[in-house]
Amino acid sequence: MAPQLYLITPADPDPVQFPRRLMAALTGPGIAALLVRRGTLDDAAYAVLAEQLVQIGQAAGAAVLLEDDAALARRLGADGVHVGKGGSKTIREAVALLKPEGIVGAGSIRSRHDAMSFGELDVDYVMFGPLGGDTDAQAAELAQWWAETFEVPAVHSDPAAAPEAMAATGAEFIALSDSIWSAPDAAAALRAFAIAAGEEA
């Protein structure tokens, strides 16, 4: 089965221009999930940006997740939260606040031990690889191991991914970020990944 696309926003997008860029990008192939990164934004600025992007993403049929703020996700009506900081304690708190209706994903996984520890906490997915920046050389191997061994869905995040060189990990989702937003046409870039993944564009 072809992996679904999971789109990650840039860390510090222009709050005026980026919502329009996202709307244009989402005219491409279907996106299963959209993660709104926090970057260096303070609480107030992140809430303003997230509110806009939640509406845009959900209107396009994507499940919209916020980064490390389960309470804000609940307040804004987002679909869930991606927990990359705080480890097991923060994941448990997010699960208690958002489940069963909401989505809780776990990231910042550095080892098989991390993955197994987080995977036991009623999360909806585990993500291997960074949200942006340099590619993690171990992420593809960990994602493949997880996808072959466990039922909790795997997300393989490769910021520098190229459609012609996608790692065949067996992960249920491929997360895309830098390579999409650096492209002149984000929708076309997503379409190329969808085709490479075997999806209908």
Provide a short characterization of the protein structure.
By secondary structure, the chain is of the alpha/beta class. The chain has eight helices and eight strands; from the N terminus they run βαβαβαβαβαβαββαα.
Protein architecture, described:
The protein has 201 residues and is an alpha/beta fold. The chain has helices at 18-25, 43-59, 70-76, 87-98, 112-119, 139-149, 178-181, 186-196; strands spanning 4-8, 33-36, 63-67, 80-83, 103-106, 125-128, 154-157, 173-176. The chain has one domain (4-196): Aldolase class I (TIM Barrel, Alpha-Beta Barrel), CATH 3.20.20. It contains eight helices and eight strands. It has an eight-stranded parallel beta barrel with strand order 1-2-3-4-5-6-7-8, surrounded by six helices. Helix 6 (139-149) links the parallel strand 6 (125-128) and strand 7 (154-157). The mean pLDDT is 95.
